[in-house]
Specification:
The chain is of the alpha+beta class and 171 residues long. The chain has two domains: 30 residues, no CATH class; 128 residues, Ferric Hydroxamate Uptake Protein, Chain A, domain 1 (Beta Complex), CATH 2.170.130. The chain contains three helices and nine strands; from the N terminus they run ααββββαβββββ.
Length: 171
């Protein structure tokens, strides 16, 4: 038992905790290894009418298998089987008990407001298992039940350099 504690303490001191956290986030039979996929898509988060800035350091390059590089809302996926549920967990945007806390503000579903998820303009009910694909436009939306994200979110097109057939497509 003491040896386990020493290994855990040494691991935390020497930076192994990132790998442990990364593996915990990506544990599951269907998430592939880094490099088994290479997809780019738009992912926007709109909370109570305000777009969340995905360029904040807490969202950039948090894990190898799924991440943002820049504040352009382009999500990079580098593993087969990556689901929107795992992506949200990785970004710290996991909804628990109908609530999400972001930057000190808590958003909670109730009788009139809820979280809604859209892929390419269509609402998806099972967001946790949805597997984003190259070129998707995804929106995580919190607001009144009778509202929806603006059409402009679904009209975004990836830069030519991130299209599947682009020579030397960026990572």
């Amino acid at each position: 038992m003491a040896a386990v504690v020493i290994v855990l303490v040494l691991g935390a001191v020497f930076g192994v905790s990132y790998q442990v956290a990364d593996e915990r986030v990506f544990s599951g039979p269907d998430i592939g290894e880094y490099g088994t996929s290479h997809a780019h898509l738009y992912f926007n988060v709109v909370l109570a009418g305000e777009e969340l800035d995905m360029g904040q350091s807490q969202f950039l390059q948090q894990a190898d298998r799924v991440h943002f590089h820049n504040p352009d809302n382009i999500l990079h996926i580098h593993a087969d089987g990556m689901t929107l549920g795992f992506t949200l967990r990785t970004l710290g945007l996991q909804i628990e008990d109908s609530c999400l806390a972001v930057n000190g503000t808590e958003y909670c579903g109730n009788e009139t407001h809820s979280f809604q998820f859209y892929a390419n303009g269509e609402q998806i009910s099972s967001y946790r298992s949805y597997e984003p694909e190259q070129g998707d436009t995804l929106v995580m939306f919190f607001g009144p039940d009778d509202a929806a994200p603006a059409d402009e979110y679904f009209e975004q097109e990836l830069p030519e350099s991130l299209q599947p057939d682009a020579p030397g497509r960026g990572v």
